[in-house]
Amino acid sequence: MKAIALLGGPQEEWPQTLAANIKKAHKKGALIMASDRGSLFLLELGIIPDVALGDYDSLSDSERQRVEKEVKDMRYSNPIKDFTDSEMLFYAAFIDYKVDTLTVYGATGGRLDHFLVNMYAVLKAPFNRFKERIEFIDNQNIVRFFGSGKHLIPYNAEYKYLGIGTLTAAKDFSIKNARYDLAPVNLSVPTMYSSNEYFNKQDIEVSCSVGTLIVINSRDKK
Predict the structure, then answer these.
(1) Residues 115, 6: Cα–Cα separation, whole Å
(2) Which residues contact 192 (CB under 8 A, 6 or more apart)?
(3) Which of 18, 111, 143, 179 could form a disulfide with 197 if both were Cys (CB 3.0 to 4.6 A apart)?
(4) Can you tell me the distance from the alpha carbon of 205 to that of 142, in angstroms, rounded to the nearest whole number?
(5) What is the pLDDT of residue 111?
(6) Mean pLDDT of the region 122-142
(7) Whole-prediction pTM value?
(8) Strand-strand pairing, 101-105 and 134-137
(9) Quick one: pLDDT band at residue 79, thresholds 50, 70, 90?
(10) Cβ pair 88, 71 in contact under 8 A
(11) CA–CA separation, 155 and 37 (whole Å)
């Protein structure tokens, strides 16, 4: 089962097709999830989430009551907690609902600390073992994560620019079949190789023997 989630990031960072994408996925049986204000955003789009999680500190009492009335699986957290709202969502998706993949909107833009929390969550147990099944999407970027081994990045004409790097120390990190290839290198700190591109419409291969990789497909703002 696939899952689609909306977090509380700013609406101006959403893809223009977000509502249509979520509605289409829901009709095909995808689990629809939201954290905190994302649950209200979905209701305003005419979409009732299957699961809502968070401390709801960004909602007024009347807004929270509206969400409580509509959502069947409503989960609450203490504002003073070990897991963030997004980490609670990852846990529910993969541990409780056992989804195969999770596409997350509203995870980027706005406050940088919120984005970094969402990104670094893929390094933490128990979420790290699911990192290759998580992607963040906004109006300009698709963000994915990979562990050791070889991975193909399919050609994407719409999001044609790439930032390819590491979130941890890495061994034998390489990039092949891109406009700018990288011979295997060992890196002791997180490193980003930005402004790369596809070459001759080929899929790109990224690999490492040790480490966690991040791949960002990007496009200019519409």
Answers:
(1) 13
(2) 163, 164, 165, 166, 214
(3) 179
(4) 17
(5) 82
(6) 94
(7) 0.92
(8) parallel
(9) low
(10) no
(11) 34
Share of the chain above pLDDT 70, in %: 97
pLDDT band at 66; cut points 50, 70, 90: very high
Tokens of 117: 């929390």
Q: DSSP assignment of the chain, as one string?
A: -EEEEE-S--GGGS-TTHHHHHHHHHHTT-EEEEETHHHHHHHHTT---SEEEE--TTS-HHHHHHHHHH-SEEEE--SS-SS-HHHHHHHIIIIIS--SEEEEES-SSS-HHHHHHHHHGGGSTTGGGGGGGEEEE-SSEEEEEE-SEEEEE---SSS-EEEEEESS-EEEEEEESBSS-EEEEEESS--EEEEEEBSTTPPEEEEESBS-EEEEEE----
Instruction: Determine contact, residues 130/90, Cβ cutoff 8 Å.
Output: yes
**Separation of alpha carbons 74 and 54, rounded Å:** 9
Peptide bond into 126 cis (omega under 30): yes
* pLDDT at residue 37, rounded to an integer: 87
Strand partners, 196: 162
How far, in Å, CA of 182 to CA of 178, rounded?
9
The pLDDT > 90 percentage for the chain reads 78
Q: How far apart are CA 195 and CA 162, in angstroms?
A: 6
Rounded CA gap, 28 and 40, in Å?
22
Q: Which residues pair with 173 in a beta bridge?
A: 185
